[in-house]
Amino acid sequence: MTRSVLAAALIVYSLLAKKGMHV
Q1: Does the reported pTM lie above 0.90?
Q2: Chain segment 1-23, per-residue pLDDT in tens
Q3: For residues 11 and 5, what is the distance between their CA atoms, to the nearest angstrom?
Q4: CA-CA distance, 19 to 12, in Å (whole number)?
Q5: Is the Cβ–Cβ distance between 11 and 5 less than 8 Å?
């Protein structure tokens, strides 16, 4: 895995977290 993949995953996860469940 590259940092780009990890960064993208974090961004997507953040967006999903905001839309779905608020932590």
Answers
A1: no
A2: 689 999 999 999 999 988 876 65
A3: 10
A4: 11
A5: no
**Measured CA distances, 21 to 6, 7, 11, 13, 16 (Å):** 21, 20, 15, 11, 8
DSSP assignment of 1-23 equals --HHHHHHHHHHHHHHHHHS---
- CA dist 10 → 4, 18, 23 (Å): 10, 12, 15
Tell how far CA 11 is from the center of its chain.
3
Phi/psi of residue 11, nearest 5 degrees: -65, -50
